[in-house]
């Protein structure tokens, strides 16, 4: 359920805490699956939306803390590639 609704859950105050808890306390395979869902989302803007959202950015920070080296590198690379867009004020 979390994986299916990851963007919606991550962008809301209380449900973003649930997603963060799943990332912190979940089994390694579940953490990896959630982080891969962020990185390889069908919605190309998902990772950007999370980074710019006032609650979603905490999910990204937690994902960075819990990610494998490869996953962390991909998130950072994506952020760097989109830094100009991310720096714009909404």
Describe what you observe in this structure.
The structure is a single chain. With 90 residues, the protein is mainly alpha-helical. It has one domain. 73% of the residues lie in helices and 0% in strands. It contains 7 helices and no strands. It has helices at residues 6-10, 13-25, 28-39, 46-52, 56-66, 69-81, 83-87. Helix 2 (13-25) packs across helix 3 (28-39), helix 2 (13-25) runs parallel beside helix 5 and helix 4 packs across helix 5 (56-66).
Secondary structure blueprint with pairings:
Elements: H1 6-10, H2 13-25, H3 28-39, H4 46-52, H5 56-66, H6 69-81, H7 83-87
| Spatial gap, N to C terminus | 29 Å
- Low-confidence runs (pLDDT<50, min 5 residues)? none
Shape: globular
Helix count equals: 7
The secondary-structure class comes to mainly alpha
Residue share in β-strands? under 5%
Would you list the SSEs in sequence order as H and E? HHHHHHH
Total beta strands = 0
Average pLDDT works out at 89
- Major sheet characteristics: none
What percentage of residues falls in helices of 4 or more residues? over 70%
Q: Could you say how many structural domains there are in total? A: 1
User: Rg from C-alpha positions?
Assistant: 12 Å
Quick structural overview:
The protein is mostly helical. Helices cover 73% and strands 0% of the residues. It is globular and about 35 Å long.
Key words describing this protein structure:
0% strand, 90 residues, mainly alpha, 73% helix
């Amino acid at each position: 359920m979390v994986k299916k609704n990851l963007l919606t859950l991550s962008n809301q105050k209380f449900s973003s805490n649930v997603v963060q808890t799943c990332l912190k306390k979940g089994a390694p395979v579940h953490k990896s699956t959630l982080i891969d869902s962020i990185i390889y989302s069908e919605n190309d803007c998902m990772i950007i939306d999370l980074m710019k959202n006032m609650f979603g950015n905490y999910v990204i920070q937690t994902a960075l803390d819990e990610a494998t080296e490869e996953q962390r590198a991909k998130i950072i690379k994506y952020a760097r590639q989109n830094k100009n867009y991310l720096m714009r004020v909404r």
